């Protein structure tokens, strides 16, 4: 807010000085050229904040989450895989007795799921459920290693 007030003050001072210069010049071709120069200076002062914003955007840097992201190559693949794994985790959390789930990629087509369960959840059924969730989200069959831990019933 203070930068806007400073900009308005600068603009007012430039307009007043420009009018003073035009008033003091005698009527001649010089007065027309001075009017043109004063107008250009006023325009430059009016556009100065825009150039500062553009400069700030250029020097702002990228957010950490998007630092390695590109629209092609490994950065894009990593963003896509992370999103697909988050979706698979959400699917696994709908399974009765599952309280926590974290899925990570250990290699191409290979995943590790760390799952906290409450009650009795058959390991083979849970493994198949996780593999199906990953296949649904990634679109490809997956090899899954499931690490189970028990949570106390709440």
**Top CATH class of the largest domain:** Alpha Beta
Which structural category fits the helices and strands?
alpha+beta
Number of helices: 4
Which term fits the overall shape? rod-shaped
Which strand-content bin applies to the residues?
15-25%
Can you describe this structure?
The chain is α+β, with helices and mostly antiparallel strands and 154 residues long. The chain folds into two domains: 2-59; 74-150, ANL, C-terminal domain (GMP Synthetase, Chain A, domain 3, 2-Layer Sandwich), CATH 3.30.300.30. The chain is 58% helix and 17% strand. The protein is built from four helices and three strands. It has helices spanning 2-24, 29-59, 74-92, 123-138; strands at residues 98-107, 110-117, 143-150. It has a three-stranded mixed β-sheet. Helix 1 (2-24) runs antiparallel to helix 2 (29-59). The chain is rod-shaped, with a radius of gyration of 32 Å. The mean pLDDT is 82.
